[in-house]
Design goal:
By secondary structure, this protein is mainly α. The chain has 20 helices and no strands.
Length: about 400
Amino acid sequence: MKTRAVIFFALLASAISYAKFSPCIGFNWATPGQYIHACYSDLPSLLGSRSIGSGAWAFSGEQPVEYPVITGLVMYLTAQVAQVTTTYYLLNAALLALLFIAVALITARIRPQFGYLLSFTPAVIASLYINWDLWAIATMMLSIYWFDRKQYDLSALAIGISIATKFIPVFLIPVAIYIFYRNANLKGALRYLVIALATWLAINLPVALTTFDGWWYFYKLNIERVADWGSLWYALSALGIGLANLNYLSILLLLACIAALGIFLFALDYIPSLAQVAFIVIAAVTCVSKVYSPQYVLWLAPLALIALIDKRDLPAFWIWQVSEVIYHVAIWQHLATVTGAKFGLPVTGYAIISLVRIAATVLLIVVLVRRALALRSPNRPDSQGKLGDFLFEAGKSYP
């Protein structure tokens, strides 16, 4: 699809999304109306409940923002321009629309065969203006684009900026290091790490040194966070399956996912691109994290599209999208019930839909993993041996 067509459809998707969110402007995001009409957004909500609403620096005051530095900076600067809630929302929404166009262009450039579909994914359209995530997603997609074109310094710079905006892209760095390792380029891996870390430090140190408590608030919140909306842990708890020591369990499951990803990557007899495996990594992390926010689809949809290899994998993608749309409706209708609406979705129904959404995400992960494994050469000897054979077959010679 030509560039002009990608821009047109991204603009159209942004406009449709704006129309979907617009009912809340009329009643100033009042509760439970903002949930009943599924037009809730953090943009106006946090202006009134965080220090930026009174003109204070994002990481100072009694209520600093719960985001990394660049997101906090965006929130603060736009609050200096627009102190009125509606104006603040419109300004940030306009910037997010521009960022979505950029993400659509990058996605289509990385994977022309499927990337153009981003503007047609219903859950993405439904979620564009929930939060500031697109600021980090744009730089993450740029990093992947540059990495797979061997422009490693630019990629490292972009990933450092992305991590300083939202922390999720940090999980792509081990995959980048793995690709350097498979290319026997350990010097390149070290240089990549240094540039990414230096970029992150250059952005974070001024804030950490001047307003440490506000800077640390984001990290503290995520360390101490209990089971939150959309997560596996919240759904299980809502269904009466109480789990003690949640932090340890979530870390243990995350480590298990990392081990499984390691087995998968080293089972490949070819060097994958970062675009090919980024969805598998980020989706696995979101599925086991303590929160699985509705706007996470904005992260996963472009990554899924650039990971698609064959048209036969599209049904799994659309099944996942259907689950995301159902969840998008479910969370707002459940929150409507929680906040006093006469009708809504009870907690049991919400928990079941949360688990269906996670299952659909896992299904897409499995489909992409199987497709990647199918690309292995059936005749090429594996000089390193198969890690799975080592783990599961090595003990057979013992009594």
